[in-house]
């Protein structure tokens, strides 16, 4: 039963992607571009060489971590929109810890930076979590507002107390000592060993949500909090802890951005990546494995679009239109899946009745 | 008399279940037709076909001689068919009038919603049909009985002359049921409407219907003139075997006090006092029944005892330990299990499987955990299978989503889980609301078994027969206060009605 559903999901996903690409092709054709050339350039942009593949995978990693952070929140019925702020704070603290610990062993600095990033991100998610549970303050509002606070706080730190000694860098922390950099898996790309840790985290999230007693309790809490409370679960605590873990993942993602790719805290650490991760999670219906798949698709489109712009001369604006259409179609995936399921049920039911009738007649 | 509705060889198949099997049935113009059967017999499915929610997999449907080709609620409404579902479909934050006109709103200058006109239209309907209700009250503030009236008025507003009522009395008090029947008789007599009632309360079938159709396992077993049958005949047609309402043997003397409530004050959802100074004791080995008309504080009282609602004043003790304003989890640990009033919102996780719902509360037990965190699915499933069989849950197995099950089977899931905790204290609210005869028999036997094993049971039910059948002692609640306490065999149903409506108080009689 479960297996069949997953196949249905993949089929629906592929159909929606195909439809989106067809619509995109029409738009390309109308605006005077050859769709085939443009799409070849898109694929080329994502896959033509190791560097592109590396960048694509790194971006997928970021989307996946953010998406999973959103997934676990939604599992207990809380919507963490504040991942962007948690990510930024995690990044800047991790970067500054690296600057402070210059000269020590990477075996000390990297774990400390990771812990620091998780602590800051977790704390920053704890605030809206507690407000939600204790005072029933809507977490969507608090997390969105805290994003702004975090962004300005980081601006202040990067321009003020933690500013880079280099005057040409207007807003940025000190350079991360190269001893602490994650090794590159593909030279020249953003892809580093951080993706290995991300893969482990992804596995853990999947495992906890699907296979453990805690994941079971989380699901009960998210599905029906009143029932969970009635059944004796400490729902308040479950919600807060989950929110903190979600924030910790975002903070760690920020640290990966600094230690794996940027090697400094500056605004390019995240260009609203969390919100794209949020979109991934929503399209994936907050399920871990689809989140991974859709992260990859989004990353291919995003990195590929840069190739499309340079190789086929398709302006960026047009790429945005195509991306939007893709998102619409993929969001319609549920509808497509339901339609497929209904058609199959109907066929099956008609068949069953027919055989039953005929079988019955044969007996008489 | 003409045939208003004709089903011809209708079949309806859901994956794995043949819900309706080759059904041919005619319903006459201007009659009250009762459709009875156990849970899952296919009554609701058949009526959902008539109302256009389901499209039959085979067969034909005729309404007033016309063949139905498009199945949708909208098309059904256009044909003059109205349906009131078991679970109401009202917007809680809208007023009565707004709910009634929803979808066909009167407009001001063709654009703006005209609230005054909506209320006027509602008032006209109310007067025409004698269904008293305040058009400007918000749905969330009115009782279930009144909400049902709103549902009926909604169908009338849309011009229905065929009315389908799905388990209409499941949520009503005896008085409300009488009033509903009065309304049904009136609309049939004066407005020549056709009414179809889905039910499994046979005394009601006898009281209200002209003809009755009995369904069992998707098949139509028979259609009879009501005056030619009796409850016994119908019950055996429904179940497929003679049904004996056994006398429930109660044994043993009450023991020590297990629930002690002292001078309790609790507020309702709006912050108004709902329970006002209630004190009671329940001893081990006895059933204390609460008889009260809906909305007189019994729901709030049970929620306060079980930790789901805040206590403003007074104390609750469970098994000798203070439970006042403790969490439901802590109170469970003191030895209390709870079958809640509203199983959909409190008793189950609709989205989870039967197995997951049966496990709740035991998920931390060693046998279900490997290394203390990994859930052992095979053990969980074996445990669920065991309860599934033991409590005779009927559905498509332990992997079924609970939300897709019938009310009776959903209740079996709740009872199976709560009764298996084997706690010394049981709080049970509305155990058989919306449940069929077979299951009712089963629940009652289980409850008395628990009592005889020495459990202290606090029972609240809108079904007065049930309260009398199961209780050793009965208290009546009126406006949040206890108006009387009786030994169950020392008072009649009629007498207790006076205490439930507050027209008599203990000591005044």
Sheet-strand content of chain A, in percent, reads under 5%
Q: Most extensive chain contact?
A: A-B, 29 and 37 residues
Question: Which band does the percent of strand residues of chain B land in?
Answer: 25-35%
Query: What is the percent of helical residues of chain A?
Result: over 70%
pLDDT averaged over residues of chain A? 87
CATH superfamily of the largest domain in chain B: P-loop containing nucleotide triphosphate hydrolases
Low-confidence stretches of chain B: none
Main β-sheet of chain A: number of strands, strand sense, barrel status? none
Instruction: Please indicate the count of domains of chain A.
Output: 1
**What Rg of chain A is obtained from the alpha carbons, in whole angstroms?**
23 Å
For the biggest β-sheet of chain B, the strand order reads 6-9-10-3-11-12
Number of strands of chain B: 24
Assign the CATH class of the largest domain in chain B.
Answer: Alpha Beta
- Element order of chain A: H for helix, E for strand: HHHHHHHHHHHHHH
Unreliable spans of chain A are 1-5, 359-364
Please describe what this structure looks like.
The complex is a heterodimer of chains A (364) and B (509). Chain A has 364 residues and is mostly helical. Chain A has a single domain, classed as ABC transporter involved in vitamin B12 uptake, BtuC. Helix content of chain A is 78%, strand content 0%. Chain A is globular, with a radius of gyration of 23 Å. The N terminus and C terminus of chain A are likely disordered. Chain B has two domains: 237 residues, P-loop containing nucleotide triphosphate hydrolases (Rossmann fold, 3-Layer(aba) Sandwich), CATH 3.40.50; 244 residues, 3-Layer(aba) Sandwich (Rossmann fold), CATH 3.40.50. The longest helix of chain B is centred in the middle third of the chain and has 18 residues. Classes of the chains: A mainly alpha (364), B alpha/beta (509).
């Amino acid at each position: 039963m479960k297996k069949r559903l997953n196949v249905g999901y993949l089929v629906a996903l592929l159909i929606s992607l195909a439809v989106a690409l067809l619509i995109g092709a029409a738009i390309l054709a109308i605006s005077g571009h050859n769709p085939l050339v443009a799409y070849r350039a898109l694929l080329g942009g994502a896959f033509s060489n190791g560097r592109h593949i590396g960048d694509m995978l790194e971006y997928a990693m970021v989307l996946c971590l953010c998406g999973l952070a959103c997934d676990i929140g939604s599992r207990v019925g809380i919507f963490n929109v504040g991942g962007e702020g948690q990510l930024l704070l995690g990044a800047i603290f991790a970067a500054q810890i690296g600057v402070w610990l210059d000269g020590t062993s990477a075996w000390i600095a990297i774990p400390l930076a990771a812990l620091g990033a998780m602590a800051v991100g977790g704390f920053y998610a704890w605030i809206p979590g507690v407000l939600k549970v204790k005072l029933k303050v809507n977490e969507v509002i608090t997390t969105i507002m805290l994003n702004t606070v975090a962004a300005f706080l980081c601006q202040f730190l990067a321009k003020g107390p933690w500013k880079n000694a280099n005057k040409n860098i207007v807003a940025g922390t000190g350079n991360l000592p190269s001893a602490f950099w994650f090794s590159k898996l593909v030279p020249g790309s953003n892809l580093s060993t951080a993706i290995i840790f991300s893969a482990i985290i992804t596995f853990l999230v999947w495992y906890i949500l699907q296979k453990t007693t805690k994941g079971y309790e989380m699901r009960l809490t998210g599905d029906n909090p009143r029932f969970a409370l009635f059944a004796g679960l400490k729902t308040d605590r479950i919600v807060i802890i989950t929110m903190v873990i979600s924030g910790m993942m975002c903070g760690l993602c920020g640290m990966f951005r600094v230690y794996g790719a940027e090697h400094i805290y500056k605004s390019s650490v995240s260009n609203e990546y969390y919100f794209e991760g949020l979109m991934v999670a929503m399209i994936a219906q907050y399920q871990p494995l689809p989140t991974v798949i859709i992260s990859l698709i989004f990353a291919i489109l995003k990195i590929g679009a840069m190739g499309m712009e340079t190789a086929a001369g398709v302006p960026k604006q047009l790429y945005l239109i195509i991306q939007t259409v893709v998102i619409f179609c993929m969001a319609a995936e549920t509808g497509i899946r339901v339609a497929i399921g209904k058609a199959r049920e109907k066929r099956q039911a008609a068949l069953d009745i027919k055989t039953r009738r005929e079988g019955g007649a044969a007996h008489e | 008399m003409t045939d208003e509705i004709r089903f011809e060889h209708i079949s309806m198949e859901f994956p794995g279940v043949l819900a309706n099997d080759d059904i041919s049935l005619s319903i006459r113009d201007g009659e009250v037709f009762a459709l009875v059967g156990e849970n899952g017999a296919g009554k609701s499915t058949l009526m959902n076909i008539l109302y256009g929610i389901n499209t039959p997999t085979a067969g034909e449907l005729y309404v007033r001689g016309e063949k139905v080709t498009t199945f949708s609620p909208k098309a059904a409404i256009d044909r003059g068919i109205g349906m009131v579902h078991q679970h109401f479909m009202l917007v809680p934050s809208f007023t009565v009038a707004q709910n009634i006109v929803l979808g066909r709103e009167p407009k001001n200058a063709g654009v703006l919603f005209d609230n005054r006109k909506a209320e006027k239209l509602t008032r006209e309907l109310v007067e025409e049909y004698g269904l008293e209700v305040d058009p400007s009250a918000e749905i969330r503030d009115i009782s279930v009985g009144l909400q049902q009236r709103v549902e009926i008025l909604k169908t009338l507003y849309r011009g229905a002359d065929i009315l389908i009522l799905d388990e209409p009395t499941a949520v009503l008090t005896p008085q409300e049921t009488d009033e509903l029947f009065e309304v049904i008789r009136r609309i049939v007599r004066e407005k020549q409407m056709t009414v179809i009632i889905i039910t499994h309360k046979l005394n009601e079938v006898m009281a209200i219907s002209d003809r009755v159709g009995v369904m069992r396992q998707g098949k139509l077993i028979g259609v009879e003139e009501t005056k030619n049958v009796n409850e016994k005949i119908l019950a055996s047609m429904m179940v497929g075997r003679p049904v004996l309402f056994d006398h429930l043997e109660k044994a043993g003397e009450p023991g020590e006090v297990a629930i002690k409530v002292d001078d309790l004050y609790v507020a309702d959802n709006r912050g108004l006092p709902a329970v006002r100074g209630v004190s009671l004791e329940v001893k081990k080995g006895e059933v204390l029944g609460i008889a009260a008309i809906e909305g007189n504080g019994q729901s709030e009282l049970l929620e306060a005892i079980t930790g789901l609602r805040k206590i403003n004043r007074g104390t609750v003790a469970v098994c000798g330990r203070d439970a006042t304003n403790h969490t439901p989890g802590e109170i469970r640990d003191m030895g209390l299990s709870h079958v809640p009033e509203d199983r959909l919102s409190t008793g189950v996780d609709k989205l989870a499987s039967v197995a997951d719902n049966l496990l709740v509360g035991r998920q931390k037990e060693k046998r279900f955990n490997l290394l203390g965190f990994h859930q052992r699915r095979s053990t969980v499933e074996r445990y669920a299978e065991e309860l599934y069989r033991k409590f005779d849950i009927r559905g498509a197995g332990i992997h079924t989503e609970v939300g897709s099950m019938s009310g009776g089977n959903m209740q079996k899931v709740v009872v199976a889980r709560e009764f298996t905790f084997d706690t010394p204290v049981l709080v049970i609210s509305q155990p058989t609301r919306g449940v069929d005869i077979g299951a009712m028999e089963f629940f009652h036997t289980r409850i008395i078994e628990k009592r005889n094993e020495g459990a202290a049971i606090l029972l609240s039910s809108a079904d007065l027969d049930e309260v009398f059948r199961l209780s050793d002692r009965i208290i009546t609640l009126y406006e949040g206060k206890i108006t009387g306490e009786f030994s169950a065999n020392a008072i009649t149903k009629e007498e207790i009605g006076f205490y439930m409506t507050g027209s008599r108080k203990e000591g005044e009689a």
